[in-house]
Lipoprotein
Amino acid sequence: MKRIRYIAIYGVLIIGLMGCKKEVADPDSYNPNVLPPLTHEGKNTFGCLVNGEVWVAYAPFTVGGAVAITGEFNLGEGYIRATTKSDEKHQIIGMFFKNISGVGEYYFYLNSETKLGIMYLDDKSPSDCSSIYYHDLNNTGVLNISYLNQNERIMSGTFEMDLVNPSCPGDTVKIREGRFDWRY
C-alpha cells in the first residue's frame, strides 16, 4: 500500500513539473546597439551615448555575478549604478543624487572632495592613464526626473554629463541622451 502511495505522489510531482514553463526572456528585450525606450514602468533599463556610441546596461545572469542595474533611493537621495558586462568588456556608470523631491530637473551630487558620479572602463585603460572617470566639476551635467512613484518604487528620467580622467588631463567622456527606468 505504501508503494502505491509513493508512486502516486511521484506521479503527481512529475505531472506538475511537466506543466511548468520556464520563462524565456524576449530576445528583443536587450539590444546593445539601441538605446532603451523612455518608459515609466520600472523595467530596469539604462542606456546612453558615450562619446557618440550606444551604451546599454546588461549583465548576463550568474549567481553572485554582476547585476545590470543596482542602486538605492531613500529620503530624496541615492545612486544608480549601471553595468555592462560581456566577455570583451566590463564597464560601470554611476550617478549620485540628492534632494530629489519629485519630477523635475536636478544636478548630480558632487563636490571637489568626493567627485561622485563615475565611469569605470576596464577595456580603455592605456598604461599611463587610470580607467576611472569622474564628473567634470565645471560641467556636472543634469538629471531630469520625469517619473517618480515612491509607492511603486519606480524612478525614470534622462541625464547627461561630462566625465574627466584626473590621471590624463584632457581625456573627457561625454555622456548624452541618457535614459533610465528603474525599480529601486
Observations:
- The chain has one helix and eleven strands.
